[in-house]
Structures are given as structure tokens and as C-alpha cells.
Amino acid sequence: MSPVVTVTDLTKRYRGVTALDRVSFSLTENRIYGLLGRNGAGKTTLMQILTAQNFATSGEVTVFGEQPYENERVLSRTSFIKESQTYPSMGVHHVLRAASLVHPGWDDEFAQQLTDDFRLPLRRNVRKLSRGMLSSLGIIIGLASRAPLTFFDEPYLGLDAVARQIFYDRLLADYTEHPRTVVLSTHLIDEVSELIEHVLLIDAGRLLLDAEAETLRGQVLTVSGPTAAVDEFTRTGAELHRTRLGGTARATVRGDFGPADHDRARTLGLMLEASSLQDTVVRLTTARTGSAPAGAEATSKEKFR
Amino acid sequence: MNRVLTVARLQFVAWPLVFGWPWGILALSFLVNLALFGSIGDVDPAPVTGGLSSIYIVMLVACVTTITQDFPFIIGLGVSRRSFYLGNLLQFGAQAVAYAAVLYLLAVVEEATGGWGIELTFFGLPLLLVDNPVLRYLAFAIPFLLLGLLGIAIALVFKRWGVNGMLTLSAAAIVGFGGLGVLATWRGWWPAIGGWFADQSGGALLVGYPALLAVPLAAVSYLIIRRAAP
């Protein structure tokens, strides 16, 4: 399967700030990617460059095998929904009509149904929408455009839990019926962990992780028990994080763990559990920068291979 | 080309606003003038209002907002800068062509009705161009294009270089025009300049020179928008 997006050594520098630092990865067709990272990690810049809204300092980007810049063949197949999107002063129905003209795969009926789901007032001027309504408008455009490559950049700002769940449900249902490549950038990692098939984690402009969500699930474990036993077990992997309480310790470890390791943990008298995606992301990010907040009752120690 | 047409169509989706503003304000200006000079009664010389300029100013403002508002929106939807720019020029050009035709007709009606019965010149152009109908039509149309492209170019400088860009542009304009003014005063060129303008025909001032200025403006705007971030 040919990749939809290929990024090679992509670097973006603003005055004195390196937003992206030699990032390389590729996206394959018809998958849901989670683009994760802290605020200012470079996620938005990356998506802006992929959609030719921003310019790379160096490096190569191809989308559908071509350069995206000023390329209608690429741009007409992409949809980029961002939190900071602004709209001209016009009605919601005008915005939807405009979006339907630009996207060849637009489904009017679906847009109508989503508008009802999100209870978006069609006749209201976009300038008068609340933050949450503005987010739903973006989500409706992103879903109804059915673009083969769709980016959602933190699309949920101001959305209540019910509306967010509607978004996840509709996204999954429509994705199943009309497969496409979706890149979901979000801070609410636990909410989307079931949705994401592949994880890209960036921090301070660097790609920290490019892994299948399923593989990752077995790779990062939290092990707890007597300190000596934990020490013994963590030797087989890379320790990302540790908290200590009296004679016991709780450590997050990354490694290629198999059934044998689970048996070993049991014989050592250790509790072993898979880390959630959110924990994994937090631990991987802080293990690199060493900036994890230390709890009052626990001391933290991080190291990274 | 297809996408250019899409952009042009897209900018008309909110058409009541697109047409409503320029014509609404022009109508208001006209009615106020009509009421004013109608109530004053006989005025000598017959009144010539500047009210027609309102529609040109509204269109200039509309062009500024296409860059500040429509540009981030339409590029955000997934259109190339080239298609946006050409589509925008197309929709604006179409408006200029149509609006100029309506204004021309209104000017003809104005003449036929003896200035709406009160010898009011509202739609008639300040410079005499009645002799040539083509030139007279263009004198309505070309200023739309010049002002529109000026609005687009200035808004693009802001969009691409921000407040610093605007300040640099203003400083350059002040130094440039101010310097020329000083030079003209110092060398005693003002009478010659005045005489040169007086020698130009209305056609040259309303059609020829604006058209000559509009072309490089359009080219410069295209170069600026190519590297502008929405």
C-alpha cells in the first residue's frame, strides 16, 4: 500500500525557535492516526505544512505522491479542521454551502444529520456562535467533506462531553463506511485511545514515537511491588518513570514484553498492568525532558535509554 | 480553472450581503441627496454630489475584507492561493462590470429626467465623457478595479508582514510622496504638474491611468499572496 503522506527530515524554524526538528514519518491509507504532544510541540505547524498553509524551512513533504503547495489535486482531497479557524461574517448555512463547493466528496445529507446531532442553528451568523458551536461547525465540515486525508487539530474546544462522544461515534461510523486517512490531534488522549490505530508523538519539534497503538499497548507496562523486585524486573526494559512509597515502588517500563515476562513478574511477586495510552504519552514525554512533577509523598526518578 | 470558478461562486454564497452593502449604501446616499436638494429648491449652479463615490469606497472595503476574512477561510477549506486569488479577481471583476453597467444606465436616466426633476447630478461623472459611450462605461468600471486591487494589495501586505509591514509601507509612502512634493516645490514644478493634469482628457484620468496602475498592482498582489500564510 502506497503511503498517503511521506515526510522526510522536515524542519521548520521561526525566528530563534525550532518548531519541527528533522521529522520523518509516513502515513498509510485508511487509518486513524493520533498526533499527540504537549502544547507548542509542533503538531499544528506540522499539519499546516502538510496542507501547504505554512512553509517548511527544509525537508521533503509529499501528499498523495505529490508536493502539496499550490497543488489542487492534493488540496481538493484534504480537509484540515483547526481550532483557530476563522470564518467571514455569514450564516452557518453559507459556511456549509461554501465547504460543499470546495470538497468533491461532500455529503449534504450527512452534513444535515450532523447539524441536527450537534443542534447547530443553521441561520445564525458564525460570528455569533459560541466556542462549542464553532467547534461543532468545524467537525461537521471535517466529517461531511469525506476528504481522503482529513486532519482534526484539537477540534473539540468548548464541546461538552455528549457532543464529543457524538463526534467520536460519527467519526468511527463514517470511517467504517467510507475509509479514509484521519489524523486526530488531541489532548484528551484517554477519550480517543480506542479510536486511534497508530500513534505519532512529538515533543519540542521531535518525533518521539511512531508506533501502532496495539503494539504500544503491550510495550509499556506499569509494574509495582517491593523495590528490589521492581529493580530486578525493570532491568529488562527502559524505565520511564518511578514513584516510591516506603519499601514498595511503582515503575513504568518500556520494552518488548512477552508471556515469559509476565510469568517472571508473577514469580517476583509483582503487579503488572498495561499503561493507558495517556500514561504512556505522559511518561514518554516527561522521561525525555525530565520535567515530570514530583508528588509530595513520592520521589520520582526518570531515565530514558 | 475549475477551482478558480469554485472560489468565485463560493464568494457569492452570502449574496444578499455581497450586493446589499454597496447598493444599500449607494441608495441611501442617493435618497438623502434627493431629499436634501429637493427641499432646498433651486440651487445655482445645479448641485453635483460626491455620493457616487460611496459605492466605490464600499467595494474597496469589501476587497480588504476578502483578504482579511475570506482568505483564511477559503485557504483553510483547501484551495490553492493561485485559485483563491484568480477566483477572487474574477468575482470582483464580474461585480465591477455589472455595477458599472447599472451606474451607466442610472446616469442615462438621470440625464433623461433632467437630474431627477431637480437638476441633480448624482450618477453623472465629474469629468465630461459623454461623447464616447465605451469610454464613458469604462470610466465607471475601471476605477472599481483600481480601488479594489489597491484594497487587496494593502490588505495582503498586512496579512503577510503584519503591523510592521503596514508601518513600513506607510513610512515608504510618506517618504516617497513627501519627497516628491518637496522636490516639486523646490524646483517650482507645481504649475507644470497642474498644467499636465489639466491637459489630460477625462478618459485618460478615469480610464487610462487607472488601468495602467491596476495591472502592476494585480501582479504584485499575486507575488505577495503566493507566500502568505492564511
UniProtKB/TrEMBL annotation, chain A:
SUPFAM superfamilies xrefs: P-loop containing nucleoside triphosphate hydrolases
Keywords: ATP-binding, Nucleotide-binding, Transport
Annotated ABC transporter domain residues: 5-229
Domain of life: Bacteria
Entry annotated with the keyword Ion transport: no
SMART domains: AAA
Database matches in InterPro entries: AAA+_ATPase, ABC_transporter-like_ATP-bd, ABC_Transporter_VariousFunc, P-loop_NTPase
Single annotated GO MF: ATP hydrolysis activity
UniProt name for this protein: ABC transporter ATP-binding protein
Automatic annotation (TrEMBL), chain B:
Alphabetic keyword roster: Membrane, Transmembrane, Transmembrane helix
Protein name listed in UniProt: Uncharacterized protein
TM annotation in the entry: 12-35, 55-77, 89-109, 137-158, 165-186, 206-225
Domain of life of the source: Bacteria
Transmembrane helix in keyword set: yes
